[in-house]
Design a protein that fits this description.
Blueprint: H1 9-13, H2 21-33, H3 37-50, H4 55-67, H5 71-84, H6 89-101, H7 105-118, H8 123-135, H9 139-152, H10 157-169, H11 173-186, H12 191-203, H13 207-220, H14 225-237, H15 241-248, E1 281-285, H16 290-296, H17 299-305, E2 309-314, E3 328-333, E4 343-346, H18 350-353, H19 372-382, E5 389-393, H20 403-406, H21 410-414, E6 422-425, H22 432-439, E7 445-446, H23 454-461, E8 466-470, H24 473-480, E9 485-489, E10 510-514, H25 521-539
Helix pairs in contact: 2-3, 3-4, 4-5, 4-6, 5-6, 6-7, 6-8, 7-8, 8-9, 8-10, 9-10, 10-11, 11-12, 12-13, 12-14, 13-14, 14-15, 16-24, 19-23
Length: 540
Amino acid sequence: MQLTITYTLEQKLGKITPLDVPATLQRARALHHDGNLAGAKILYEEILKTQPKHSEVLNLLGLIAAQTGNPQLAADLLDKAIECDPRNVEAYCNKGTLFKQLDKLDAALLCYDEAIAIAPNLAAAFFNRGLVLQELKEFNAALASFKQAIAIEPDYVEAHIACVVSLQELKQWDAALASYDRAIAILPDYEDAHLGRGALLQQLGQLDAALSSYDRAIALKPDYAAAYVGRAVTSLLLGDFEKGWIDFEWRWKDSNGPSILEKRDFPQPLWLGEESIAGKRILLYSEQGLGDTLQFCRYAKLAADLGARVILEVQQPLSVLLEGLEGVSQLVIRGNPLPDFDFQCPLLSLPLAFKTQLGTVPSSAKYLTSDPTKVATWQTKLGEKTRPRIGLVWSGNPVHKNDQNRSVPLADLLRYLPPELQYVSLQKEVRENDKRTLRSNPQILQYSDDLHDFSDTAALCDCMDILISVDTSVAHLSGALGKNTWIMLPFVPDSRWLLDRTDSPWYPTCRIYRQEKPEDWDGVFKKVARDLVQRSSSAA
């Protein structure tokens, strides 16, 4: 018969006496390292009974308090550790980390400065100090701190990678790429570095090289969702829809993807075009931004053409506009109860389900319609038209990860627009600096307070001769309405706009104005102004 013997922690480790503190501390550190915080804490506290001013143990107990969600106790213990030994560098560093986690960045910086003053060759202190400076948006200082860490430890891979963030913010693209290359030279199998390098190359428009980096990351980590998504976006930009849409399905497993992306755990099967949906009820649902919903809701008709009863779930601001969308049997506002259904498919998986290729994009001159009553109301507000009306949208969602590349200040755009036309803002959310610009340019009509949802915006859009927009949901709206839509894009745009073309397979009435080099909005504005003048002259 096999006996099961249970030992207490004290029995396992032996009785603690003042004479075996070093050994006990070594065992406690081992437990701490292995994640047994409770066991380590017991031993640390036993040591303090013998040596209550043991600075190293107070520091480690402070670290456990921070790890277990007790920041005040952690701060108190770390302060006591420093009081007992003012040269306890580890305690200063742990306190810096604690303050960084609490978003007390100035206090964190002081802690790392104290650590560096005591131990000027401690690379980790310079590295962590750099991370704090980055959060404070002091990118030059952060870069200098990372470089100091590297000077001390040339093979400090994390410091090389951290340099990239500051270098990108400082627009030092070649240096950022070189930092990735150095990190990979040190650690060739570091999949995160290959992923980051791919993203940077994509941003720089070096797409074939970006694909190679993503491929390498995937080879090193075959389930690396972020690398598949990066490869998907690059493939779609290049017009390789077959590979792009397949890879894009990895977005659901990408923990670093957009926060708006939410996996829906429906019991009903996901439909990706394999099963017949004739006579079945299928739920098509929004998953990302408003522009995505406007772009891909067109697939509802294709699903209905297969004989399905289509239930479309959309964001509330789009609900009135999309009520009459062709192919939709029932519209549901997201958050409301759903009816029964047999299959489900998120909107951005529909191109895969329908095997959409570059030459088979389901496009028509117009698939959305505005409310005639609302159009008439806007026409009354606008008054008699005596010159061409140009709608303007110059900024998108400020929390979008690519907002700094795709939004522009209104004042920059206005410097180029010919004055003889009538300009109307279709901007719903107006930033403070743009509000000042609008106040100093009263000739621009502005109705943001009257745009309650997208049906209002659609009706106003229908009153425009041309809609000029950056890459926002209103650009999609105008294109879906079949309006003349001029879209201003950054050097490397969102994948849906492809590359090196002035038109869009998704929106036949769109004209695209692209940056010829990164951040060259002036070149875009000049081309827009030139075409506006020509349009105005031909209409006169």
